[in-house]
Each structure stands twice: as structure tokens, then as C-alpha cells.
Design brief:
By secondary structure, the protein is mainly alpha-helical.
Length: about 475
């Protein structure tokens, strides 16, 4: 017998809590200025594709790997950020970022509320999970995975046994995701876990999800460079570059690391007290391993853990389980926060936070045209703001692996053979932090100081 559709008021009441948290997350996220150096080269790539109506398939930004072929797998994510920038400048980028973070918050709340979890338990879990994810709130295509991962989990956990029309959402979802960000591989792994669990526990009734999972894999090959994107994403997941902070293992003395450790302890402790499920073990174990490989992966374990912790922790305190905010209270709060979120978009920052970058050095750098050796962290900024001077290196670390990156590190730290490397790359100018051993040594060798920062943050040196 078919069930009657829920009244609109009931649907709004059920969505009030997730909408309220999403509105609050938007208000917080939209006020943050852009700070990440990688944002600049992502925008530069997207801007080039918009201008030329073509995929950018080779390097045009560097002097060291110029012309090298690289994949364009995240082209749609780059176009989204570049389009937002074209439409509304840095405020457009901030609004896109805040929208994706708000979507993530909406679905994390839905995960945490599963099984009738009390709001006073689920809300701290959601807040903690979002705080763990804050280290990835940078204006890059990875924000699409931040939003799509909890949305995928919410969909999979709500699927009925057997065939459901909601299964038809999955292939189009992955078709879009695979062109947005390499995190789609993690999504495929999650679908495979649910499909395997369905076969083990439900037998033939789990076949529809298995067939859907196969279709999801098939559509990911519609990416312009599927194997290249998959390879790069696999390296990020399985062999992360340890010289970047976000790829270091979790550090429990940091706020995000401490919260992550708290989630791990809560999962283990509550499972010992109340028991767990096969699905929980199959899902959380690999996500925990992934989290241990890099700090930026901790959020996936925390997001998934909320789906099991909310109900389990509520069951441990049955006396207070029924304490809920009434609908007449929830709905007005959600309406106020959503309206405030929309209003806050008008106050989005119109400029990035460029204090960490050598903005005042740009004019001096425009006067020369030789090979420039720059700080790794400043490469993206230079690509966007000084396109006429190819960079030595930047945050697109993959093209530089196995050669340029090693040479760069040898140069700036004065490892044996550094003088030969200067000649090898025909370096005629440097933009480095003054305390770099290379900068100190070249000043002693007579390299000219063309420009410097009064605060001692950067120096421009030229061959004598």
C-alpha cells in the first residue's frame, strides 16, 4: 500500500535543523578571505579555458616544465571557480566556497540525525566534524568533494532494500563528480563498500546496487582524461607528498587532530558499549586508514562516523532521548539563519588576503624577463598576477616530481651541486625569503638586491 506524501509543512519542519546549520556554516565561510596559493593557479587554468574555449592540456605557466602534458580531469571544478570569479570577483569565489561548505553541513546534519539522534548530541558531533574539515576550506575543486561525500553517504544510507529509483541518481552524480575533482575515486570506493555489504547481508536483493556501482564506474571514463586524473588522485590518497603540511599524518596536538582523535575514541568506545554493524566496520575501517595517511583526509572518517555515533550516543542516555526542540522553535530559527546567510553574501570579501605574498615585488619583476627562481608557496600567486614571468615551481607539484622539485629543494637549501643547478636552469633572478640559505649565499657572491620588503618577508636578487 503506497504511503501518502508528507505535507509541505512536515518536510520543512524535518529540514529545519539541517537548514539552520547550513545557514550558520554559510555565514561563517563566506566571510573568510581567500588565502591559498593554489587558488590562484586553479583560477588561471579556468580563466584560460574560458578564454580559449578549449581544455588546457599542457603547461604554459612555468619555465621548467613548459609544454609538459598534464591531465585536465578537474576542468569543471576549475571552470566553476573561474566563472564565479569572472561574475563577481573574489566575492563570487567566497560565495561559491560558502555554498559548498553549507551543502556539506546540511548533509552532515542529516547523517548525524539518523536513527533519531537527539539534537543536543548530533549538533556537537556536526560542529566537531565541520571543524575538522576546516583545514580543507580552501578555494579549490576539492570543496566539491567536501559537499558530495556526505551527500553520497546520506543517499546510500537511506536506500531501501532492492531496487529504488534513487539508485538512478548515482550515475549522473558520478558523471559530474569525476569532472569536478579526483575525490570521486573515494566516492566509488564507498559505493563499492555498500554494494559488497548488500550482497553479503541481503543476497540477490543487493544486486541492483551492485549493477549501479558498475554503471558509476563506467561513467567516470567520460572524463576527458580519466586515467590521468585517477592516477593523480591515487597518488594523493596512497602516496601523499609529505613536504606539504596538509599531507602530513594527523597531529593530535592541533585542534583538528584532537577532534579527529576524539571521533576515533567515540567510535571505538560506543561500539564496545552498544555494538556496531558490519556496514560500519566495512566503511569506517578504510576511512580511518585513509585519515592516517594525511591530515586532509581526516574529515571523511569524521563525516561518516557521525552517521553511526548520533543514534548510539543518544541510546546511552535514554532518559534524555526525547528532549527535542519543538517544530515551532526549529522552523523560525532555520528561517532566520537562511535569510541571514543570503544577506551575508552581500558582505563577502572583495579581495584575497595577500599578506603572505610578495605583492610589492611585482613591479620590479615586470622589468626583467629572464628565468625566475621563486618560492614554492608563491608560485600560484605569480601565475595569476604576473603571467608574463613563467614560474620555476608552484603548487601543481605533480609535474615537478622526479626532477624539478628535487632540484628546487637542493637549490634553496644549498645542497651539493647547487651552483651547477643555477647554471643548468639559467636562473637570472630570484624571489625568495631572505633567510633562505641560497639567498644569503648569493648576496655574499655579489648578486644584486633589486628589491626587498621592509618587513623582511621577501627579496629580489639578480645576477651581477
Amino acid at each position: 500500500m503506497a504511503t501518502a506524501p508528507r505535507p509541505l509543512a512536515a518536510n520543512l519542519s524535518a529540514s529545519a535543523y539541517p537548514l539552520a546549520v547550513a545557514g550558520a556554516a554559510f555565514i561563517i565561510a563566506v566571510g573568510l578571505p581567500s588565502t591559498d596559493s593554489d587558488t590562484y593557479w586553479q583560477l588561471a587554468m579556468g580563466r584560460w579555458m574560458l578564454d580559449h574555449h578549449a581544455f588546457l592540456r599542457q603547461d604554459i605557466f612555468s619555465s621548467t616544465v613548459a609544454g609538459m602534458h598534464f591531465g585536465v580531469g578537474e576542468w569543471l571544478g576549475q571552470l566553476a571557480f573561474a566563472g564565479s570569479f569572472t561574475a563577481a570577483g573574489w566575492a563570487g569565489v567566497a560565495v561559491l566556497r560558502a555554498t559548498l561548505i553549507a551543502l556539506a553541513a546540511f548533509f552532515v546534519v542529516r547523517l548525524a540525525r539518523r536513527g533519531g539522534a537527539a539534537w543536543w548530541i548530533s549538533l556537537p558531533l556536526v560542529a566537531a566534524a565541520l571543524l575538522v574539515s576546516k583545514i580543507t576550506w580552501t578555494d579549490r575543486p576539492q570543496l566539491f568533494t567536501l559537499a558530495l561525500f556526505p551527500a553520497l553517504l546520506d543517499l546510500l544510507l537511506s536506500l531501501p532494500v532492492g531496487f529504488s529509483r534513487r539508485l538512478l541518481i548515482l550515475p549522473p552524480l558520478f558523471l559530474v563528480w569525476t569532472n569536478l575533482h579526483g575525490g570521486y575515486l573515494l566516492g566509488l570506493a564507498v559505493v563499492a563498500i555498500f554494494a559488497a555489504e548488500g550482497l553479503l547481508t541481503k543476497g540477490r536483493r543487493g544486486l541492483p546496487l551492485v549493477l549501479t556501482a558498475i554503471a558509476c564506474v563506467a561513467v567516470t571514463f567520460l572524463n576527458p582524461a580519466p586515467l590521468e586524473l585517477a592516477g593523480a588522485a591515487r597518488e594523493d590518497f596512497l602516496n601523499p607528498p609529505r613536504f606539504l603540511t596538509e599531507f602530513l599524518p594527523p597531529d593530535v596536538v592541533t585542534p583538528a587532530g584532537a577532534l579527529f582523535a576524539g571521533f576515533v575514541l567515540l567510535v571505538i568506545g560506543s561500539a564496545l558499549l552498544r555494538g556496531g554493524s558490519l556496514l560500519e566496520a566495512m566503511l569506517l575501517a578504510p576511512l580511518l586508514y585513509l585519515a592516517f595517511t594525511a591530515q586532509r583526509q581526516m574529515l571523511f572518517f569524521c563525516f561518516a562516523a557521525t552517521a553511526f555515533l548520533g543514534a548510539r550516543l543518544t541510546a546511552l542516555v535514554p532518559r534524555w532521548r526525547g528532549y527535542e526542540l519543538p517544530a515551532p522553535v526549529r522552523l523560525p530559527i532555520a528561517v532566520v539563519l537562511v535569510i541571514a546567510a543570503l544577506a551575508s553574501a552581500l558582505a563577502a570579501p572583495t579581495h584575497p588576503d595577500a599578506r603572505a605574498y610578495p605583492a610589492a615585488a611585482l613591479d620590479a619583476l615586470r622589468e626583467e624577463h629572464g628565468v625566475l627562481l621563486n618560492e614554492y608557496d608563491w608560485g600560484g600567486y605569480l601565475i595569476f598576477n604576473l603571467p608574463e614571468r613563467p614560474v620555476f615551481i608552484d603548487g601543481r607539484y605533480v609535474p615537478y616530481l622526479g626532477g624539478v622539485l628535487d632540484d628546487y629543494r637542493a637549490l634553496v637549501s644549498l645542497r651539493p651541486g647547487w651552483r651547477d643547478l643555477l647554471d643548468k636552469y639559467k636562473v637570472s633572478e630570484l624571489l625568495l625569503r631572505p633567510e633562505r640559505p641560497l639567498a644569503v649565499a648569493l648576496r655574499e657572491d655579489g648578486w644584486r638586491v633589486r628589491s626587498t620588503d621592509s618587513a623582511g618577508r621577501w627579496i629580489v636578487l639578480a645576477r651581477p
